[in-house]
Amino acid sequence: MTRTVDTTQELAAFLRTRRERLDPRDLGLPARRQARRTPGLRREEVAELAGVSVDYIVRLEQGRGLRPSVHVVEGLARALRLARHERDYLFNLTRQHLSGADKPATAAAPSLARLVADLAPQPAMLMNHRFDILTWNGEMARLLLDFDTLPPPQRNAMWLCLMHPRMRDFYVDREGALREGIAHLRAAWAAHPEDEAMTGLIAEFMAGDEEFARLWAERDVEVNGRGRKVLRHPDAGLIDVHFEVLMPLQDSDQRLLIYRAADDASQSALDRLYTR
């Protein structure tokens, strides 16, 4: 099977960007008399910190088809001060561990569909790793969109945020919401390189949305399981919500998203919305 993700080139670019973002002073490295021509660490410094040769770092960053061992990947993660999600991304790129099957679910298991319905009146929906929306309750449909009116290919949270006219201004902090979603999507992309549908979505977003292309190029990797967002609903006004993302143990590539009002005013707005 042909890979839809060129993990060799992505690994090269990821290592370069992580190296260039580091400040040598934060790592206690000695000052150099000669001015640095590029930001961040030199390859020689990464090699020393990771316990590998400079030539090895050069070949990795040139995408010359190396597959680092677990020991080397651990050394690179330490040297580059990778956060946990970035470390997981590095391991996925080097194919040292894989997460789950490469064929995502296209429908919710009956038990999960019942759970989403039972979570009412809290808005809830279930997505697979590429943000396809598998099932939702009525409260989530009233808050976001009537998903039943959309063709199945458009029932994707990232597609809606980027492409649907109503959703473009739905998040008060639109860039923050996109950044978060793109960082999650990049982690899923590395974990599922044979997922042609996801690769096609990313290509569509890259071609059709300059903001997505700009943020995707930054190569942020993070899977955020909880937080707070302010929503701009066309009928109910501003709604401040906490969100929680849970992973079913038997369906670990799926994500259960639950919203809860963050304050009394937001709860009142939700109550009015549900009784319309």
Keywords:
single chain, 276 residues, alpha+beta, 434 Repressor (Amino-terminal Domain), Beta-Lactamase, 5 strands, 44% helix, Lambda_DNA-bd_dom_sf, Helix-turn-helix transcriptional regulator
What does this 3D model show about the protein?
This protein is α+β, with helices and mostly antiparallel strands and 276 residues long. It has two domains: 7-93, Orthogonal Bundle (434 Repressor (Amino-terminal Domain)); 110-274, Beta-Lactamase (2-Layer Sandwich), CATH 3.30.450.180. It is built from twelve helices and five strands. A five-stranded antiparallel β-sheet has the order 2-1-5-4-3.
What is the spatial order of strands in the main beta sheet? 2-1-5-4-3
CATH topology of the largest domain: Beta-Lactamase
Kindly state the number of beta strands: 5
Shape: elongated
Largest sheet geometry: 5 strands, antiparallel
- State the end-to-end distance: 51 Å
Decide which structural class fits the backbone. alpha+beta
Q: According to CATH, what is the class of the largest domain? A: Alpha Beta
Number of domains: 2
As a whole number of angstroms, the C-alpha radius of gyration is 21 Å
Mean pLDDT, rounded to whole units? Answer: 89
Q: Work out the helicity level.
A: 40-55%
What's the tally of helices?
A: 12
| SSE arrangement, N to C | HHHHHHEEHHHHHEEEH
Give a topology summary:
Blueprint: H1 7-20, H2 43-50, H3 54-61, H4 70-79, H5 84-93, H6 110-118, E1 124-127, E2 133-136, H7 138-143, H8 157-163, H9 174-191, H10 196-208, H11 210-216, E3 226-233, E4 237-246, E5 255-261, H12 264-274
Antiparallel strand pairs: 1-2, 1-5, 3-4, 4-5
InterPro entries: Cro/C1-type_HTH, Lambda_DNA-bd_dom_sf, MLTR_LBD
Domain HTH cro/C1-type: 33-90
Protein name: Helix-turn-helix transcriptional regulator
